[in-house]
Design brief:
By secondary structure, this protein is an alpha/beta fold. The chain contains 14 helices and 12 strands.
Length: about 425
């Protein structure tokens, strides 16, 4: 496909209206790919503290890796969204969460057929207005997937990577921090894994604490000890962050921050759920530990409430959930007014990395890389993003540069939940 430019369109005598009519959405397809990957068993099953752990019945026993690591084949699957437009141009994005895929199939697909694939902001606004629940939750996750796929389509249409369409790049590679979800919190294993990741270039690491108020003083001591071990392992210059996934309350968070302030954590993430703006504001005003949240923000309006209240020091909006690339860019602009960095949550990688690469390093200094999850998450993608020395190099491939590996797909199925 020839590279399309605004100058070329004018030289060819095309009007904007005529050109738009040549790229209309003709189909939205949800494909499930199935295959087999190599997996380890008996290790890396560490849980993190969760809101339900306030109840004794739902609080698991302390985790330990098994004595033997077993390796073997494991079935895996993923859903990808494919958009097809007139003229043969396509857009691809995934993996997509199944609950979002159902909404796309049942409520969004028919609405988008015939729409201008190049008018992304219009499509986003219309989808947001389409459903009374469109402003949050699963419907916003569906909007996010569609928006990201449309950005990939436009990148392929103009034969440019998404970060260039967004105004970048601001750097040649994006630094990522090592996110250690699943890694054992046994003291010796924390030290060993932290040093291993540091040697791989992950100078910033996020660890997921396992205990909350229900675990009593012993659990509190374990949470403090993890921070102490990490500071010893990473040295004085290493960045250490902690995620507690809404599993704490304000008194507990205040006490923990007081204990570890001298260790200089880079942030404490999601101590409470994101409707508790006042609790975040009180915690932020009471500690030198930066407070981070945002993976469950659904749009710029929720972010604004936190920024106005001076309740957060790091915004972690996720382009898979907050409204896609289009909305994350607006959130970055909003956060920059308050001089609060945006470090996107890393449920997925492609959209987040391209947005970060398009922004000033002062606005988006880092992105998240879930070390264990990403080892297999892009099993079907021939161009999965793999850090080298803690950084992901940017590619000039059009769109997000995603391509499905036919060699790894054992079965494929076109999904539909419509009656």
């Amino acid at each position: 496909m020839k590279r399309r430019t605004a100058l070329g369109l004018l030289a060819g005598g095309f009007s904007l209206q005529a050109q738009e009519s040549k790229c209309r959405i003709e189909a939205l397809e949800l494909w499930e790919y199935q295959g087999t990957r190599e997996a380890e068993r008996g290790v890396n099953g560490q849980y993190q503290v969760q809101p339900l752990h306030a109840y004794d019945a739902y609080r698991p026993k302390e985790y330990r890796d098994g004595p033997v690591v077993e390796k073997g084949p494991q079935k895996t699957s993923a859903i990808y969204l494919k958009l097809k437009a007139s003229g043969g141009v396509e857009g691809l994005y995934g993996p997509v969460d199944r609950e979002a895929a159902i909404v796309i199939d049942q409520q969004i697909r028919a609405f988008l057929i015939g729409k201008d694939a190049l008018a992304g902001d219009v499509a986003w606004d219309q989808l947001w207005r389409l459903n009374r629940h469109g402003r949050s939750g699963i419907f916003m996750m569906a909007i996010s997937a569609v928006d990201n796929a449309l950005w990939d389509l436009r990148g392929r249409y103009f034969q440019a990577p998404v970060y260039r369409l967004l105004g970048g790049p601001s750097r040649n590679s994006v630094e990522v921090y090592g996110s250690c979800l699943g890694s054992s919190l046994e003291p010796a294993k924390v030290a060993a894994r932290a040093k291993e990741l540091l040697a791989q270039g992950f100078r910033n690491q996020k660890w997921f604490l396992a205990d909350g108020p229900g675990s009593g003083s012993a659990g509190f001591a374990r949470n403090v000890r993890v921070a102490q071990i990490l500071r010893e392992s990473l040295g004085s210059g290493g960045g250490m962050m902690f995620d507690v996934f809404n599993g704490w309350d304000l008194p507990y968070a205040l006490q923990w921050c007081k204990e570890v302030e001298g260790l200089r954590p880079r942030w404490l993430e999601e101590p409470f759920s994101s409707e508790k703006v006042d609790a975040y504001a009180r915690l932020s005003a009471s500690t030198s530990v930066p407070i981070a949240t945002g993976e469950h923000f659904y749009g710029r309006w929720e972010v604004h409430q936190f920024l106005k209240a001076d309740a957060v020091r790091v915004v972690q909006a996720d382009p898979e959930w907050c409204g896609g690339v289009s909305e994350l860019k607006k959130i970055c602009t909003l956060a920059s007014i308050y001089d609060v960095p945006v470090i996107p949550h890393g449920h997925n990688l492609h959209a987040a990395v391209h947005v970060v690469a398009s922004e000033s390093p002062t606005t988006c200094p880092l992105s998240e890389y879930l070390v264990l999850k990403m080892a297999s998450y892009y099993h079907f993608d021939t161009n999965s993003l793999i850090p080298k020395n803690g950084r992901i190099n940017l590619s000039e491939r059009p769109g997000f540069g995603m391509e499905i590996s036919r060699e790894r797909v054992e079965k494929s199925k076109l999904l539909s939940w419509n009656p």
